[in-house]
Design brief:
- Strand 4 and strand 5 form a beta hairpin.
- The chain is 27% helix and 23% strand.
- Its EC number is 3.4.11.18.
Length: 286
């Protein structure tokens, strides 16, 4: 899940004795601390949280079909996350009302699920969700090409977005830098003629859903060129638009759409940096 820039600035790097829970979901803690390097015990818990996320997304990939609503998918996600002993990371987070973000076609991020929002054949649907388990979060997003009649351009956009994620992850290891990751994503995206959304970034993840560092998907001097260390846990999430990079937020104060009405795609994994690469904690191939 992405955060608006001001929200991210207020919650980056928060650590402590676990994120307190309310009935609605994880309560937001205040304060700032540096980038965490997780212990083996903490990574083992994050692996379990991330497996829950991967399981739910795998189920949603299999079940999503024309005629269903985004509200149907949200109910399934919440039921399954809770059945596996976790709490939905998104529900109640800064007031977000659901357990998944469901963003369709030109919606970029933070789409609010609804029983009135029917998925149609040919839709490009982004499903982003997280699970909070024993004090730690997992976070991941997939893009679905639903039913028959999905335009080839939509399929290509989703494919390039997923490829760009994997190109970025291929650079990750202890001693590599965030800008190496960002550059690999940017080069792959731009080689295919797409625009990288710059308003939203990846992030550290762990005790809090959003921690330091910000994980950009393009080269920028605004990002300290941090060297990665084994045990860092990151949510890497390239977002691509078929047209321009510009985005705007709708009146619901959550749903972000492309300014020019073009399609948007996103893929995300939670990973842990290792000495010689990275381990994809939200890998759905299990």
């Amino acid at each position: 899940m992405n955060l608006f820039a001001d929200l991210l600035a207020s919650t980056n790097g928060v650590k402590g004795g676990g994120t307190p829970l309310t009935q609605a979901g994880p309560r937001i803690q205040k304060g700032r601390r540096g980038v965490e390097v997780k212990s083996a015990r903490e990574i083992a818990i994050m692996r379990q949280a991330s497996r829950i996320v991967a399981t739910v997304l795998r189920e949603i990939i299999d079940m999503a079909a024309p005629g269903m609503t985004t509200g149907d998918l949200d109910r399934h996600a919440e039921t399954r996350i809770r059945a596996m002993g976790a709490t939905p990371s998104f529900k109640g987070y800064h007031g977000f009302p659901a357990s998944i973000c469901a963003s369709i076609n030109n919606e970029v991020v933070h789409g609010i699920p609804s029983a009135k929002r029917v998925i149609k054949a040919g839709d490009l649907v982004k499903i982003d969700t997280g699970a909070y388990f024993e004090g730690f979060h997992g976070d991941s997003c997939v893009t679905l090409c639903v039913g028959e009649g999905v335009p080839e351009e939509a399929r290509r956009l989703s494919r390039v977005a997923q490829e760009s994620l994997m190109q970025g992850l291929a650079t990750v290891k202890a001693g590599s830098t965030l800008l190496e990751l960002a550059g690999a994503v940017q080069d792959h995206v731009e080689a295919h003629g797409y625009a990288i959304v710059e308003d939203y970034t990846g992030h550290g993840v762990g005790r809090n859903l959003h921690e330091e560092p910000s994980v950009f998907n393009y080269r920028t001097r605004d990002l300290p060129n941090m060297q990665l260390r084994a045990g860092m846990t990151l949510a890497v999430e390239p977002i691509l638009n078929a047209g321009g990079k510009g985005c705007r937020t709708l009146k619901d104060r959550w749903t972000v759409v492309t300014v020019d009405g073009s399609l948007s795609a996103q893929w995300e994994h939670t990973i842990v940096v290792t000495s010689d690469g990275c381990d994809i904690l939200t890998d759905r191939d299990f």
